[in-house]
Inverse folding.
């Protein structure tokens, strides 16, 4: 597992999608992914916060530079709640939910890392019909 390569590929993929899509500052870029699948395993069988962190770093580098809001989707155990910044929640009047994602229990590794690394992270129920959500990137 080459974490630097995972980070590089995530950054490249998001750069290409942002460029091709025309997504703008202040819109959402939704990411739902499975660190297990990135490692070539079945979803939920080989959770890796190291992989999730490499993905987050690559993705966030692009989005932060362009001031695009990341929305990290949790797994079904948290009803697919989304990790977003408090700024995004307040801007779009989103409903906060009181949960904290966990890598091996509920939420998944990527959502957990996003919650830990994103400044002023919160979980919201959804972003539907608000904020003109941008894209969904399904990684692997």
């Amino acid at each position: 597992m080459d974490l630097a390569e995972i980070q590089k590929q995530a950054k490249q993929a998001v750069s290409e999608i942002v460029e091709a899509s025309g997504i703008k500052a202040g819109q959402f870029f939704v990411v739902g992914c499975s660190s297990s699948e990135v490692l070539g395993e079945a979803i939920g069988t080989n959770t890796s916060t190291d992989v999730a962190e490499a993905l987050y770093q690559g993705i966030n580098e692009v989005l932060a530079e362009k001031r695009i809001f990341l929305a990290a989707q949790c797994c079904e155990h948290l009803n697919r709640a989304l990790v977003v910044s408090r700024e995004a929640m307040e801007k779009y009047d989103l409903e906060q939910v009181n949960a904290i994602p966990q890598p091996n229990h509920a939420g998944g590794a990527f959502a957990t890392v996003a919650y830990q690394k994103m400044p002023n992270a919160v979980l919201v129920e959804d972003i539907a019909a608000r904020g003109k959500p941008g894209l969904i990137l399904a990684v692997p």
User: Anything to note?
Assistant: The two ends are 14 Å apart (CA to CA). The helical segments are 3-21, 35-38, 49-66, 86-91, 109-117. Strands lie at 28-33, 69-73, 82-85, 96-97, 121-124, 135-139.
